[in-house]
Amino acid sequence: MKRGTFISFEGGEGSGKSTQIRFVASYFRRKRRKVLVVREPGSTRLGESVRKILLNVRNRNMSVETELFFYLAARAQLVREVIGPALRQGYVVISDRFEDSTLVYQGYAGGLGLARLATMVREARGNVVPSMTFLLDVEPRKGLLRSGRRDRMERKSILFHERIRKGYLLLARRYPKRFVVISSRLSKSEVRSAIRRTLDRVYSRSR
Ligand code: TMP
Is 8 exposed, middle or buried (0-12, 13-18, 19+ CB in 10 A)? Predict the structure, then answer.
């Protein structure tokens, strides 16, 4: 039986996920919960190797299908090696990206289609599903400027990143109970307050 809490963070490039993830981690640590932060793709030896392949600009001719299987492989390993066991031990697991990234980047913006990916993403994650997903919604131009990185994924066209944003908002409308959408137009501290209010409302009575 799962006893932990699983929260994911999603958003386009430069949406400020890392800062807010650190905040959520300390929020739960103050509540004396055991906390584990992971990132996708990565956080296992296998996953970090896969990440290097995926983000390497020399792999610019990688097909979107190849991308899909690499991301799913990294996730399948992370869920079985790290997230699943941690949840069974009662941890709060916070993941920097999870399944919605695949649905949006490869399925929606990448053109493979959301419906077509449904079974595959489920196979990869097994029965591990976030109970809450924070979507940090950012305008692509702003986000890309802010992120400053130029890896293989970030070099894709601005149009691609516009579609990422649209795809996320579509998923958020489809799963309103799980998604909490926060505009990155707010200041860092306003974003943090919005997150804190949500956590207080949902988790204030938990352990
Ligand atoms: P990031 O974690 O630094 O944002 O980088 C990961 C990159 O990989 C980012 O561009 C989003 C992309 N990505 C996908 O395209 N599909 C996925 O399933 C995941 C987890 C990430």
Answer: buried
Q: Which residues contact 48 (CB under 8 A, 6 or more apart)?
A: 41, 42
Span from the CA of 199 to the centroid of ligand 1 (angstroms): 25
Rounded to whole angstroms, the Cα distance separating 131 from 146 reads 29
CA trace torsion 167, 201, 87, 52 (10° rounding) = 40
Whether 137 lines ligand 1, by a CB cut-off of 6 Å, is no
Contact criterion met (CB below 8 Å) for 147 and 13: yes
Query: For 49-72, what is each residue's pLDDT tens digit?
Result: 999 999 999 999 999 999 999 999
Domains and CATH numbers, the chain: 5-203 (3.40.50.300)
Contact 72, 98 (CB under 8 A): no
16 and 191 Cβ atoms separated by less than 8 Å: yes
- pLDDT lower than 70: segments of the chain: 1-2, 205-207
